[in-house]
């Protein structure tokens, strides 16, 4: 590994991004809009700063959605790992896995491990792009199957729909509304004229649809939750939150660190392997890992064999632009790209692809053996990665966040990320972090929203000096002001300015923009 200050530089090509691509979430054609860069090399600090401005990588391709134009806006989401407490549903998964390991049994429910919970913890949908220097291949499209938004409406309000449908109606309107509802339920009524004086009351608001009333109530509930949260003190960092009864909530570590009995039915080992052909463990497990990826993609995402070949696997999940790095005050494993392998009884059953960065563990992708879907590997691996982040924080104090990729409110299948709390969403205009409870009511009203409510606050790393942008031209590093004088051909100032504005002044002065 290269040590800190070893001279590694980030080298990128910028592609713009005005052309739309097929959306992997809503399946619309040419409606997924994003800017893109090909990263030949990328330092962990530069990538940390990029993801804190809404960028994300898929292999060596780094992309940033055009938030106010794309069909399904993708908001960067992060979890405060030190303050995380598992929810009831998370504990059920931890207990289920623990029971399976100890006694070899697990209780199955009808929807367990399928559509009822996220199975692919980081199934993002990168856009396609042609690469001008090193790679001409396209970035693969994910095969996600988002649920219909209407599925989010639960059936628990079924008995109260009549009341919701008639809220805000005058007596005459309510009578006719109830008549319609009862008729729709198959009941027989004789038609009668309304009684005199029972007509619509114009002084009262018009009748509204039950769906609109439920949506308004949901927004009010989210706002109330936000208010309640701000009125409560934050839990102590790294300590369990005690309940009112005096019992302390069990942490993830307490579930996974318990020593298994000698006669345990199964043995689970989690290995952290650097993504490098120079690492013997990575090389020795490569074929089995690639075969597992192919099995997962074909079963879960219905890929053809050629779409999940070893070469595609390598390009998508093994080729990383991140330069490995170690620091005296950093984690023992160093920074860079890793595969967290889950070995059950000597067989690899799941792999979580992660990036370890200066301030976070960033989850890239998860693939697993579909035969073990009953163990809820998507949820279990996410909880293990949260615990791993806290483990790293004990050595590197700044490494305290778990990045879960993108939160996509318009895609119900991707909303599960909001269940990991306390989480923040990145404001797409100011690049500041805002509590997700504050953001959800805004996203209920509009799929694109600015989360920072201070109109005077803007991008703190706004491009200020274009001439200071670093450029790699004819194997020579130079500032843009010099490059502009030397370059022959069409003026590319608009492209360079757009790139620098998207990556920010700090990264623009530190990274190298390749120009041919």
TrEMBL record:
SUPFAM superfamilies: Acyl-CoA N-acyltransferases (Nat). It catalyses: an N-terminal L-alpha-aminoacyl-[protein] + L-arginyl-tRNA(Arg) = an N-terminal L-arginyl-L-aminoacyl-[protein] + tRNA(Arg) + H(+). Residues 22-92 form the N-end aminoacyl transferase N-terminal domain. Residues 290-427 form the N-end rule aminoacyl transferase C-terminal domain. Its EC number is 2.3.2.8. InterPro entries: Acyl_CoA_acyltransferase, Arg-tRNA-P_Trfase_1_euk, N-end_Aminoacyl_Trfase, N-end_Aminoacyl_Trfase_C, N-end_Aminoacyl_Trfase_N. Residues 108-128, 140-207, 223-242 are annotated as: Disordered. One of its GO terms (molecular function) is arginyl-tRNA--protein transferase activity. Keywords: Acyltransferase, Transferase, Ubl conjugation pathway. Involved in the post-translational conjugation of arginine to the N-terminal aspartate or glutamate of a protein. This arginylation is required for degradation of the protein via the ubiquitin pathway. Belongs to the R-transferase family. This is Arginyl-tRNA--protein transferase 1. The gene is ate1.
């Amino acid at each position: 590994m290269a040590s800190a200050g070893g001279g590694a530089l980030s080298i990128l090509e910028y592609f713009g991004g005005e052309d739309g691509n097929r959306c992997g979430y809503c399946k619309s054609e040419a409606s997924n809009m994003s800017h893109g860069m090909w990263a030949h090399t990328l330092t962990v600090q530069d990538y940390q700063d990029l993801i804190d401005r809404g960028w994300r990588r898929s292999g060596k391709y780094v992309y940033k959605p055009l938030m106010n134009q794309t069909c399904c806006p993708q908001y960067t989401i992060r979890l405060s790992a030190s303050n995380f407490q598992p929810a009831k549903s998370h504990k059920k998964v931890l207990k289920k896995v623990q029971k399976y390991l100890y006694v070899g049994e697990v209780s199955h429910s009808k929807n367990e491990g399928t559509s009822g919970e996220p199975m692919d913890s980081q199934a993002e949908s990168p856009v396609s792009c042609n690469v001008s220097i090193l790679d001409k291949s396209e970035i693969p499209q994910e095969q996600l199957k988002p649920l219909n938004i209407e599925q989010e409406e639960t059936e628990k309000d079924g008995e109260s729909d009549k009341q919701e449908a008639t809220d805000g109606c005058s007596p005459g309107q309510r009578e006719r509304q109830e008549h319609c509802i009862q008729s729709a339920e198959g009941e027989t009524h004789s038609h009668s004229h309304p009684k005199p004086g029972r007509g619509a009351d114009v002084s009262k608001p018009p009748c509204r649809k039950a769906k609109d009333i439920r949506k308004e109530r949901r927004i009010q509930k989210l706002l109330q939750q936000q208010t309640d949260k701000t009125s409560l003190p934050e839990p102590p960092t790294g300590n369990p939150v005690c309940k009112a009864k005096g019992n302390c909530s069990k942490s993830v570590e307490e579930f996974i660190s318990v020593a298994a009995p000698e006669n345990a039915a199964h043995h689970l080992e989690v290995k952290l392997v650097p993504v490098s052909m120079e690492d013997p463990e990575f090389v020795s497990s490569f074929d089995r890992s690639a075969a597992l990826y192919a099995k997962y993609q074909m079963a879960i995402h219905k890929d053809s064999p050629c779409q999940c070949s070893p070469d595609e696997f390598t390009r998508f999940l093994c080729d990383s632009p991140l330069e490995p790095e170690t620091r005296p005050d950093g984690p023992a494993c160093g920074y860079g790209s890793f595969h967290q392998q889950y070995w059950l009884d000597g067989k690899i059953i799941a792999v979580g692809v992660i990036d370890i960065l200066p301030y976070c563990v960033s989850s890239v992708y998860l693939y697993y053996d579909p035969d073990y879907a009953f163990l809820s590997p998507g949820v279990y691996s996410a909880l293990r990665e949260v615990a791993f982040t806290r483990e790293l924080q004990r050595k590197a104090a700044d490494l305290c966040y778990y990045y879960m990729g993108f939160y996509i409110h318009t895609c119900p299948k991707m909303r599960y990320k909001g269940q990991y709390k306390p989480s923040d969403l990145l404001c797409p205009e100011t690049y500041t972090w805002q509590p997700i409870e504050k953001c959800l009511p805004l996203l209920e009203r509009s799929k694109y929203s600015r989360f920072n409510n201070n109109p005077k606050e803007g991008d703190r790393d706004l491009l200020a000096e274009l001439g200071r942008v670093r450029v790699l031209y004819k194997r020579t590093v130079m500032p843009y002001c010099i490059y502009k004088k030397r370059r022959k051909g069409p003026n590319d100032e608009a492209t360079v300015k757009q790139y620098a504005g998207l990556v920010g002044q700090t990264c623009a002065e530190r990274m190298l923009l390749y120009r041919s």
